[in-house]
Amino acid sequence: MLRWPVAFEYLSNCVASECSRLGSRNVGLKKMPSSWLMYIFLYVLVCDGVVAQVENRVVFLFNTFQNVNVNENETVQAVVSRIPPEVAFITLQFHTQHSNATLSYTRMPGLGLSLTAVDSGLLSPLIPGQTKFSWFLLAPDGNSVAGTGVILPYTSSDPVPGACNLEFDLDIDPNVYLHYNIFETTIRFAPANIGYSRGSNPPACDTEVGENTRWRLRYDIYQYFLPESDLSEQSLITSIQSVANVQTMREHGKRIMTLSSNDKTEVVFSSIPGQGVIYSVIVRDPVLNTSSSYIPVHTYACSFSSTLDGCDTLELFCMGFGFAAFLFFVLITRTTKLDYDIRLTLTAVIGVVGGVILVMSWWRFGSVMSCVVVVGLMLGFLISSIVFFTPVGDIQVFRSNVVFWVTFSCIVVGVPLFFVRWPREGNITTCGVAGAYAVVLAVNAYIYTSLSYITLNILKRFLNDNFSKAFTDVPFQDIDFIMITVWVVLGVSGIVLQLYRERTRPFFPPSPYLMWLQERERRKTNVLDPSHHTSSLPSRLLARARQLTGRRESAGECTPLLL
């Protein structure tokens, strides 16, 4: 027995095709065969109550994108015809930038018969002899929706995406479901089934485990980055069109990992707010060497309507005011639920206090070791962050928090230990590398660059216990290579210039307070020093005041002394 939505659509297709034939032959109603009249009667009966809705009709061709506008209170019928007999099932995918659109098997969306999302898709198995099919598009939020869609055909040997769905509402669900926060982006999807021909029963999903069942399938997870700092709709549409099917995603996308049928169908990535990313899943049948694509899904890890995580006002924590600010921000974020603005204000205050304490430890006490340790730790933190920003950070062993933090800490601590013997060189190197990186972060406030995630990924891992599961790939484009060049040039030139300038000076600047004490003792004991006979500062100020306010007496005639 046919499922009701399939039977309904088959009935609709039959009526539409027969009506088109009657129109071309100008046959009257009385001359219609009784079977046709039955089709029309059932069609009107089923559609009763929705005929008053305005409906447009858009004709699709296989593998050809079609831009569609869905106005308020309007239903758009998406139709594909002339389906070849070797096609066993077809998928319709529809993408908008940030507005929800509804895809439905029927004119009136219902639970299990429709899906509302920014990136939505439906899969329809075909019955023998069927050459035409249609779906319906609606705008669910009361506003018009504009997007792009495409219909892709698959044969009976291709895997069926989402055919073993037990989690989501659709019976067969080829969609990839995405959720993001400031730390991570998670995608989930339903398992697929092996292909089957028209009219045959689909293979059972979980009754057997073997090479002749769906357990032989493999899932390739792909990622595609949109151009940096480009939030335009045209950029998204162009990118979606370039990775919508299996072949184009393999050509332009990057394969992140491959899941077996025994793995959980969930993958976690690092969120990159403001950076457009397209995720897709390609299911492969290694026995038949065939493959199918799930519906690609995109995200900017930010909201186009919210002011809290808006795409135009993104949060960026640029190392606070140094060592104290960073530690304090991590501490209050993990232990309190204060508002972000309050945390940022407190971080700035503590950063200033930490900076003053570090300066005073050198100015008042002449503590070289404290300066060497703090400055060395900051350089070690930056070096360790750079190491794990490379593909080293995605090595499976570093998914373990214990292995990661032990390795990270060893690098951080090893740097100040190395520079204990050369404190001046360590301080200059830190100033050159960290100062140049601060310039990169400053530029990032106006022009997006992926280099900000060198430290931001570590901060995310500090604050989120589940971030170890996320893949931390970021896009590297022209602006990133330019900023790397700027970083290297500024860092190297700063280090060389400071080393040249400080070559004849002490290995570390002496404490100004201790030098002042030594100078004061020298003036007290050295009677030959002219400064020894200089009156105190209060005495000099009082004498000067008397000169300005006192009355000067006339000296009369002055005769110079000859002897």
Automatic annotation (TrEMBL):
Compartment list: Membrane
Main localization, broad class: membrane
GO BP annotations, alphabetical order: negative regulation of programmed cell death
Highest taxon of source: Eukaryota
Keywords of this entry: Membrane, Transmembrane, Transmembrane helix
Membrane topology: Multi-pass membrane protein
Gene Ontology CC terms, in alphabetical order: plasma membrane
KW Signal (keyword) present: no
Transmembrane segment boundaries: 36-54, 314-332, 344-363, 370-390, 402-422, 434-459, 479-500
Pfam families recorded: Ig_TM7SF3_N, TM7S3_TM198
UniProt key word Nuclease: no
Domain TM7S3/TM198-like: 314-499
Name under which the protein is recorded: Transmembrane 7 superfamily member 3 isoform X2
Organism of this sequence: Salmo salar
